[in-house]
C-alpha cells in the first residue's frame, strides 16, 4: 500500500466553509476511482495549507489518480503549486475499528 500526500496553498481569502464546499465538489470524482482505497481531506490550523492523504494500492495507481491533467486543474482551481510525496504504508493501526493491518512489500 502507498500513502500519498498531496498539498497546496488554500485559495487566498477562502474560509473553512469555502474550502469545504470546494472539497465536497471533488467527492464524486474520487468515489468513482476504483483504485482509491481512502482519502482524508486536511486543512492546516491556520487554514492556509490544504492536504489530501490518499491510500492507494501502488504508486502507479496514485500517479494515474494525480496525472498531469489533474495537477494542472488543481493548480488552476486553487492558484497554488501542487506538491506530491509518496510513502510505503507498511502497517495501519485503526483504534476506532479495533484492527491492525500489516501490508506486504
UniProtKB/TrEMBL annotation:
Cited InterPro entries: Dimeric_a/b-barrel (IPR011008)
The name this protein goes by in its record: Monooxygenase
Source species of the chain: Polaromonas aquatica
Amino acid at each position: 500500500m502507498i500513502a500519498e500526500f498531496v498539498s497546496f496553498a488554500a485559495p487566498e481569502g477562502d474560509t473553512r466553509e469555502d474550502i469545504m464546499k470546494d472539497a465536497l465538489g471533488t467527492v464524486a470524482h474520487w468515489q468513482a476511482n476504483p483504485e482509491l482505497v481512502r482519502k482524508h481531506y486536511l486543512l492546516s490550523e491556520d487554514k492556509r495549507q490544504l492536504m489530501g492523504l490518499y491510500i492507494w494500492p501502488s504508486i502507479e495507481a496514485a500517479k494515474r489518480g494525480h496525472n498531469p491533467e489533474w495537477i494542472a486543474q488543481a493548480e488552476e482551481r486553487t492558484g497554488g503549486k501542487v506538491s506530491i510525496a509518496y510513502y510505503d504504508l507498511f502497517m495501519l493501526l485503526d483504534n476506532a475499528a479495533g484492527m491492525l493491518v500489516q501490508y506486504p512489500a
